[in-house]
Design a protein that fits this description.
By secondary structure, the protein is α+β, with helices and mostly antiparallel strands. The strands form four sheets. Strands 2, 3, 4, 6, 7, 8, 15, 16 and 17 form a nine-stranded mixed beta sheet that branches. The chain is globular and about 80 Å long. The two termini are about 15 Å apart. About 50% of the residues are buried. It binds glyoxylic acid and manganese (II) ion (MN) (2 copies). Glyoxylic acid binds next to loops.
Length: about 400
């Protein structure tokens, strides 16, 4: 089969997609169920319809574009990723897997291939935790890893519920119908930028992912005592921000204490109330992200952070409440799909290497439903979640070509 991939076309589509953004270019911000997100979704589904795919969406807004196979009764082979983007992000995270997946299907069609199993392209809702505080919302619901009633009650920063937001966006129907049965798909493959430096540094074209790290998210609320920044004496203070600052350093210490590069801890959100230069902070809110490829080691870090929070609260006379938003187990990729990707990369004549994913992805949850693996392509400097994130059209074309071969193999 002569598979010809149009990397420039994908790059041009990604450039158009990047115009659906609430940030100044080159930054991209696309938060789930905003007008911008809905317009981007319409752009994507329009391209899918142009490609002759059958498009539908579930009540969570997960969107499916199907190329029917000759034996449509068999479970389909699926590919896809997300198009939401965190604030001040770039244009390639997730989107390469969605638009690259579309180009893989178009390339297979141009090559005259007809799949026996249907091939389904999935655009997952809210892989990013930006709006509702928890990542992989769509795939989490599909895998039954998040109860539909609990999901409906999630709220955004303005107190609007997920249920209302998705209905306002036009996704109605019962949320519990989003859940799929194990075996709903014969296989799932996600193409994604690496978001790290290894492939570029080692001069390798594609990474075949064998495992995905275990992420955990914590929300911490600290209540101290506010007051006048001039008049309140230092020995009398119960400064909520300083307690938060100490806790942030404890997160760093706990993550470093494992001695493994695979353990990482980040405090990415810190809100100080009332946020006035002449006012002692009375409240502070932190959001903490801890990950490891080893779930038990990650949980030991979480326990260390909890103990540090208790000690800081007692010593500083503040109240610290903690909520574990998610503490997901790591995923092992399925050997059969890893092998299909390995064969595909060899068939395409490109350099490949096995690797783990330190970022999480919808594949973390799809692996509970179907044999799953991921395909990484290099991104410049390993940079991601930043406006200068970049993957070249040539790198994208190689990833799409390998994906197309793997989809052909798995759907034959
Ligand atoms: C996904 O964007 C992640 O934070 O790993
Ligand atoms: Mn991301
Ligand atoms: Mn992503």
């Amino acid at each position: 089969m002569n598979i010809r991939v149009d990397g420039e076309r994908v790059a041009a589509e990604l450039a158009t997609l990047a115009t659906y953004s609430d940030a100044e270019p080159p930054a991209v911000t696309r938060v789930v169920f905003t007008q911008t997100d809905l317009e981007a979704r319409r752009y994507f589904t329009g391209l899918c319809a142009d490609a002759g795919l059958q498009v539908r969406a579930d009540p969570a807004g997960n969107t499916f574009a199907r190329w029917p196979g000759t034996d449509a009764a068999l479970p389909a082979v699926a590919t896809g990723s997300h198009i939401d983007a965190i604030p001040n992000a770039g244009r390639y995270d997730g989107t390469v897997g969605v638009f690259g997946g579309l180009e893989a299907i178009r390339a297979l069609g141009r090559a005259g291939y007809r799949p026996r199993r249907s091939i389904e392209l999935i655009q997952f809702t809210s892989e990013e935790p930006t709006r509702f505080g928890i990542g992989c919302l769509g795939s989490r619901l599909m895998a039954g890893a998040l109860d539909a009633a609990a999901a409906a009650r999630l709220t955004d920063g303005e107190g609007r519920s997920l249920d209302q937001c998705r209905r306002d966006a036009g996704f109605t129907g019962a949320l519990d119908s989003v859940r799929l049965n194990t075996g709903a798909y014969a296989a799932f493959v996600e193409l994604h930028i690496e978001q790290g430096p290894l492939l570029e540094r080692d001069g390798v074209d594609v990474g075949i992912v064998t495992a995905i790290a275990a992420p955990a998210g914590l929300r911490v609320a600290i209540a101290g005592e506010g007051g006048h920044a001039g008049a309140m004496l230092m020995p009398d203070r119960h400064d909520a921000f300083l307690a938060g600052a100490e806790l942030a350093l404890a997160v760093e210490r706990a993550a470093r204490s494992t001695g493994s590069v695979d353990t990482v801890g980040t405090v990415g959100v810190c809100e100080v109330f009332p946020g006035a230069v002449n006012s002692v902070p009375s409240r502070t809110r932190l959001e903490i992200d801890v990950r490891d490829i080893d779930g038990e080691r990650r949980d030991r870090v979480l326990a260390e952070i909890a103990a540090a929070a208790d000690a800081i609260a007692a010593r500083r006379g503040v109240r610290i409440s903690r909520e574990v938003v998610n503490a997901d187990p790591p995923a092992r990729c399925a050997p059969a799909v890893v092998e299909a990707l390995t064969r595909a990369a060899a068939g395409a004549g490109v350099r490949q290497q096995a690797m783990i994913s330190r970022a999480y992805h919808d594949s973390l949850f799809m692996s509970r439903l179907a044999p799953t693996a991921m395909l990484f392509i290099p991104c410049r400097g390993g940079v991601s979640h930043r406006p200068d994130e970049y993957a070249s059209p040539a790198a994208i074309a190689i990833g799409v070509a390998v994906l197309a071969r793997a989809l052909a193999d798995l759907s034959a």
